[in-house]
Amino acid sequence: MTLPIARDVATLRATIAGWRDAGQSVALVPTMGALHAGHLALLARGRELADRVVTSIFVNPTQFAPTEDLARYPRDEAGDVAALVAAGCDLLYAPGPEAIYPPGFCTAILPGGPALGLEAAFRPQMYGGVALVCTKLFTQCGPDLAIFGEKDWQQVQVVRRVVADLDLPLRIMTVATVREADGLAMSSRNRFLDARARAIAPALYRVLSGIAEGRAPVRAEAELLEAGFDSVDYVALRRRDLSPGGEVVLGAARLGAVRLIDAVPVSAGERG
Amino acid sequence: MTLPIARDVATLRATIAGWRDAGQSVALVPTMGALHAGHLALLARGRELADRVVTSIFVNPTQFAPTEDLARYPRDEAGDVAALVAAGCDLLYAPGPEAIYPPGFCTAILPGGPALGLEAAFRPQMYGGVALVCTKLFTQCGPDLAIFGEKDWQQVQVVRRVVADLDLPLRIMTVATVREADGLAMSSRNRFLDARARAIAPALYRVLSGIAEGRAPVRAEAELLEAGFDSVDYVALRRRDLSPGGEVVLGAARLGAVRLIDAVPVSAGERG
């Protein structure tokens, strides 16, 4: 079986218009490629919720700062296509940069509320880029729903806020984070962990889980450093919408050149 | 005949969904109310281009600076409704502030390119507000096309740019400015001109037209002051997309508390 690939908006919309004419619903799974089991769980959820699933792959330059890892962000379209075929994806949308940022492009979106603090304190350019590219993917594709992973908890809240504020006619759904056997959240950046770092990395989940289970967060940073992390950007307990409260534990820490993030809901029964 | 009025997004979308089910196309005429013959020309064009015409009335607070005339901007919904019925409007969308800016709203749109300079040099908050409210009206209503007047030339270029950059699936159409017999562009703010100011006001069109017909713009400001304007914000010759060039003459000048703007294309045959 081959996977249809759309590389421009016209092709994307023509394919989806055909499905719409047949009365079919559409789910979008936005990704930056380098797909792993976490992405495939989003796709599986999409197949449950909609008649057709589109996966997008676009490594969005506007959400990386000049000092960040855009150039070395993993890219493997052939591997991704094979995984998407096996997972029953209906269409890959893999736009070139000119389909997202054509000549003359000059509009920015500034998200507020959940886009402030936590990740944004360390990656101030990121959520503007996320808000922009997600808005464009949604208006280009016109899905009934889009599916995101809970690991990027703050990102989901930002996208939900922007979708509500701009009245974009789709629902945002989430899927629980898929983890390695030792608890490490699946991430495209995990491949950059060497053996020593890979052995240290699960401590992030362990420490966040401990707080989610009731331990005081006061020693979290020290525990991560003792476990071998080089630095801790933040560990925070928040409500699910990121306002003050105790519903989800979020953290980000650095291991050499790799920055890991994770999020652990206090009670699995309350997942948003 | 009565005019259906939607005051929230759900009612708006339900009405339009009924039209869509019947295969009908939809034009949107976004206004701030206080309707005059210029607005009705937009509506008439909408009736030519689409099966159904929605007119929106929303005096958007985010495009006014605190020092500007939001509080005294003319409001006359009863008069507007009568005019819309006579003109064959199918639906008035008159949202309350909470339908546009609900609690927790915190997203901004920052337009660039055509949103810089000219009006923006004197009303720096305006085009961010215009971009935001137009994006929301478009995503709330989902029209095939939206219609704007050429008087607000820069606004049209901003809206076109934002629609292109955010991939909003509609066309932006324009209608030539409707003028009084002496050339004054119809504007809701004209009602604030007293008899003396009303006699001076047509000089703006006269001076801009002179430049459009080939006169050098060097004396434009002096001519407007000599005609009785109190100050001139700008007179500028630009390409239609507002890049440097000579396709449209734009101007803004103040008469007491009233600020007038106008735009005159160099050749009527080239109107965009």
From TrEMBL, chains A, B:
GO terms for biological process: pantothenate biosynthetic process. It is found in: Cytoplasm. GO terms for cellular component: cytosol. GO terms for molecular function: ATP binding; pantoate-beta-alanine ligase activity. Keywords: ATP-binding, Cytoplasm, Ligase, Nucleotide-binding, Pantothenate biosynthesis. ATP binds at residues 32-39, 149-152, 178, 186-189. The active site is at H39. Homodimer. HAMAP family: PanC. The reaction proceeds by a bi uni uni bi ping pong mechanism. This is Pantothenate synthetase.
